[in-house]
Design brief:
about 425 residues; alpha/beta; 10 helices; 18 strands; about 25% strand; elongated
Length: about 425
């Protein structure tokens, strides 16, 4: 194994320093995983460089940039202990957190791995950040949110952690709310990187399809991980790994004991999480004068009176966006035609009063930070108020906006259905 100083001057100097400091030969260096990990942590990718003669369990740095990993490459099986040791031996940047992105399909043990790694790092004295981007099976915060926790104390369950930041996605499916999901990830990732030493990013299991690929590529660009841990049963993450260029990649085989859950079971888990979050609630009325509505048409246009049809509320927008009305009864074809003629538009957005009940919303500071989530009880168009059911402990003093989601919940917190994002 030959390194030319003219090609890799910094690498050669670092190698010589390691050999002198640790008192080992270059031959011994190849066989010692700890030193190899120290080396690869500081010099993760060098074009044209391959660390040869390493044992199969060691990380192999590919010779090209970007560092593509093909399905033909051997998957490296790391135990949780080996992954924890890798992180403990990593040199932490002085100006930001060392960031680990965990990818995997649904039910591959991502959260369990993050839980284990976090506790091992904390026991070693590290301040750890956990960014939970799995809005469908949330561990930090309720479903439909992205949550951040910062801690120096070990924990048995994620529920013990104090939430340091919360962003509202709008549903448990990132595919329905790409921009809120990515924006929330960016905001909390930036917050976390300046307040912890190691940031562990848990992610949703949406990895298959064109939309998932675009989402993952954007997520990777936002998080800018130092390490990507890919949990796989076969080689299902190969397309994603090819499109990313992380400093280090570790592909890990999912243990056989990790079982898949049915869609029904996942829905039951969300129901349990909602029920726990809303175990004690109160009603709160928000005056239209005190808050603004986000992610919806309601209260964003110009109020108008309608001559052709009796409505509870109506507002117009730009000609291309039509008119929004609220009524007690569904419009007939004749009434619809009359409204189109009155306002010279083909687009009519209609809210049938009462259908908003159970709609999941977030109560926000107005800058994205979420104080709590709640369910809509009703909109009082006469008194110009929105009545919500919110957790009893929620601090609403800084609430300046209501962010409208797309999930509707039944009284027993099962999912009643969805509305099109932004349609209200």
């Amino acid at each position: 194994m030959t390194f030319r100083e003219s090609e890799y001057p910094d690498l050669v100097r670092h190698l010589l320093n390691l050999i002198q400091k640790e008192g080992v030969s270059l031959t011994e260096l190849r066989a010692q995983a700890q030193l190899v990990e120290k080396l690869s942590a500081q010099y993760p990718i060098y074009p044209g460089l391959i660390l040869e003669q390493l044992k199969p369990e060691h990380i192999v740095l590919k010779p090209s940039a970007p560092a593509h990993i093909s399905p033909a490459d051997k998957k490296i099986t790391h135990s949780r202990k080996q992954l924890a040791k890798m992180l403990l031996d990593t040199e932490i940047p002085t100006d930001r957190a060392y960031t680990v992105l965990v990818w995997g399909t649904m039910d591959t043990g991502k959260s369990s791995l993050v839980h284990y790694l976090a506790n091992e790092l904390i026991r070693a004295g590290r301040k750890v950040g956990i960014l939970d981007c799995d809005m469908g099976q949330s561990d930090i915060g309720p479903p439909s949110t992205i949550g951040l926790a910062l801690t120096r104390r070990t924990f048995r369950t994620f529920a013990e952690l104090k939430i340091s930041g919360l962003r509202f996605v709008g549903s448990h499916a990132a595919a329905m709310h790409l921009l809120p999901a990515l924006t929330g990830t960016a905001q909390l990732c930036a917050q976390a990187k300046s307040h912890c030493e190691i940031l562990l990013v848990d992610t949703t299991g949406w990895v298959i399809g064109a939309g998932a690929r675009a989402y993952r590529q954007s997520e990777y660009g936002i998080v800018q991980p130092d390490l990507v841990i890919a949990l796989e049963r076969k080689d299902e993450l190969s397309p994603l790994m090819k499109s990313a260029t992380p400093n280090r990649m570790v592909r890990v085989t999912v243990p056989p004991r990790v079982k898949k859950r049915s869609r029904g079971r996942r829905s039951q888990v969300r129901q349990q999480l909602y029920r726990a979050y809303f175990s004690r609630t109160r009603r709160h009325s928000f005056s239209w004068q005190d808050i603004r509505i986000e992610r919806a048409y309601l209260l964003t246009g110009n109020p108008v009176w309608t001559r052709s049809v009796k409505t509870l509320w109506a507002e117009t927008y730009a000609p291309s966006e039509g008119i929004f009305i609220a009524t007690n009864q569904r419009l007939t074809e004749k009434q619809t035609a009359a409204l189109k003629n009155e306002f010279s538009t083909d687009k009519i957005r209609t809210l049938l009063c009462g259908t908003e009940k159970g709609l999941l919303c977030a109560l926000s500071s107005g800058e994205g930070e979420v104080a709590a989530i709640g369910t809509m009880d009703h909109i009082d168009f006469r008194k110009k108020k929105i009545v919500m059911s919110v957790p009893l402990s929620a601090d609403l003093t800084r609430v300046r906006a209501i962010q409208i989601g797309s999930v509707q919940l039944n009284p027993d917190f099962t999912e009643a259905g969805f509305i099109e994002p932004g349609s209200l």
